[in-house]
Write a structure and sequence with these properties.
By secondary structure, the chain is of the alpha+beta class. The protein is 60% helix and 16% strand. It contains 13 helices and eight strands. The strands form two sheets. A five-stranded antiparallel sheet has the order 4-3-2-1-5.
């Protein structure tokens, strides 16, 4: 084995060793800073940048060193170009990780200081949208910078500029729906129309907003199905948001009973069931004769709860208990078909 090959292998080993050492030192430094400042999540989140940082360091050292030129004598220029492309991609990756750490640390800090659950959900939605938009912007800039390293892209730049007007029109028409969803996502995030964790009713289906992206929302339905809705839907059509200002909600149910129903006794039993229920928040309740028909009376019972899930559970439990009480105590109150004898 010649001295030239040994020196090349030694230089490659030194480059890899220096990359691993720098990554380890940076990680240990961030770990110590995080231990000194446990109230700040930023330093621990920055540790996720170790791998892209090592790629940046390694590729930078390989480009700065003459090792590549010595190993690939005939194709040194092409190899240097591909190293530059990989370095640009790694820098973009590192920037995305740093931005994600900054936004995540900001939200963690805000969540720890705020007592308003609705405001925390709003900020979480906005931070998620900012992270996705920033990542898309960094990716776009990185890809553009990589393309500009090819001589052919610079050569045809003049012709591209000459036809930029036509291309812009065609691209605008083709991407109209995508751009509409993008701006609709920004309206949702910063207009506080809907947030992650909100209970909404879309197309007569109730669910909880689970994810918001730049183009669609994912709504988790009561039976664990996922309803995927374009974000443009929420800025162009009416929908119900049960928790936009306050998660508290009033649930209601209808009872069709006989005219002989002892309404006062039923009202007292209804109130007793609410007092014994952990889902009732104690704010309000009512039981009134809502309507009458030739054969029945219609009673509407309303009750308040802290969340929509509690209201649903409360209605089901109270309805079942009231029907059992009527069956056992006042069977004459149950609706029946009357026939003339």
């Amino acid at each position: 084995m010649s001295w030239t090959l040994l020196s090349q292998l030694l230089a490659l080993a030194v480059t890899i060793g220096a990359t691993l050492l720098i990554g380890w030192l940076v990680d240990k430094g961030l770990q110590r800073i995080s231990a000194r400042h446990p109230e700040t999540a930023f330093w621990s989140l920055l540790r996720r940048c170790r791998i892209p940082l090592q790629f940046v360091v390694c590729l930078g050292l390989l480009r700065a060193d003459a090792l590549v030129s010595r190993i690939f004598k005939g194709n040194a220029g092409d190899v240097q170009h591909w190293l530059l492309l990989a370095l640009m991609a790694s820098v973009g990756w590192l920037v995305v990780r740093v931005l994600a750490a900054v936004l995540a640390a900001f939200f963690a800090r805000y969540e720890a200081l705020s007592d308003d659950a609705a405001r925390v959900q709003r900020v979480r939605t906005q931070v998620g949208m900012l992270r996705r938009a920033a990542s898309a912007l960094v990716a776009l800039v990185t890809v553009a910078a990589m393309l500009l390293t090819f001589p052919g892209m610079r050569t045809i730049g003049a012709s591209l500029l000459a036809s930029a007007g036509l291309i812009g029109i065609v691209a605008g028409i083709a991407a109209q729906s995508t751009l509409g969803n993008f701006f609709a996502g920004l309206v949702i995030a910063f207009g506080d129309l809907v947030r992650i964790g909100d209970t909404v009713v879309v197309e007569q289906q109730q669910g909880t907003v689970e994810e918001i992206t730049l183009s669609y929302l994912v709504i988790r339905l009561w039976d664990q199905r996922r309803l995927v809705v374009p974000v443009s839907y929420f800025v162009s059509r009416p929908f119900e948001n049960w928790t936009r200002a306050d998660p508290k909600i009033t649930g209601s149910m209808l009872l069709h009973l006989d005219h002989a129903t002892p309404v006062a006794a039923l009202r007292e039993e209804f109130h007793r069931l609410l007092r014994e229920s952990k889902e009732w928040d104690g704010r309000d309740w009512r039981l009134v004769v809502f309507d009458t028909t030739p054969s029945t009376i219609v009673l509407r019972a309303t009750m308040t709860a802290r969340t929509a899930d509690d209201a649903f559970t409360l209605k089901c439990a109270v309805r079942e208990s009231l029907l059992a009480w009527l069956r056992d105590q006042h069977p004459e109150a149950l609706p029946r078909v009357r026939t003339a004898g």
